[in-house]
Amino acid sequence: MFVFLFSGLFLTARESGISLKKENSRKSVFLKENKRIKIRTVGGEKIIGNYTIVDDETITIKGQKVGLDSIVSISKHSRFSSVASPVCVVVGSIYGTAGTVGLIAGGYGVLLAPLIPLGLPLILVPILANKHKSKAWKYEIVN
Questions:
Q1: pTM beyond 0.85
Q2: Packing angle, helices 79-105 and 115-127, rounded to 10
Q3: Separation of alpha carbons 110 and 114, rounded Å
Q4: Least CB-packed of 10, 42, 84, 118 within 10 Å?
């Protein structure tokens, strides 16, 4: 009986965070509070860090208060992605360069040509990752 009483408390508890809803579709993303995110502000400033909610319109990242209306883009930014993204771009560039050089050199260098389509996604995916720009997404703080 005691377990059933407490399970009801856990079912009604909501997590705090930022809800991102795409304006022209039903797609939505939820960023939990205290998770590592990367934002770009209207002033061009890039801030990366764990965020906390101040009120319904403001968050704090690295001691800086940022209003939701001053955010241009927001994305998840784990420590793994901050290391893996540049590595993928470098490896993709090496593959693309090797494939191109192989095509130009001719002969057996043509065997390196399949590296071009392998390297292209490694370059483009980290660059074009989900940045959730404010033009297409609506930001809302959920408490």
A1: no
A2: 150
A3: 8
A4: 10
Structure tokens at 37: 């995110």
Write the DSSP string, the chain.
Answer: -HHHHHHHHHHH----EEEEEETTSS-EEEEETT-EEEEEETTS-EEEEEEEE-SSSEEEETTEEEEGGGEEEEEE--HHHHHHHHHHHHHHHHHHHHHHHHHHH-GGGGGGTTHHHHHHHHHHHHHTS---BTTTEEEEEE-
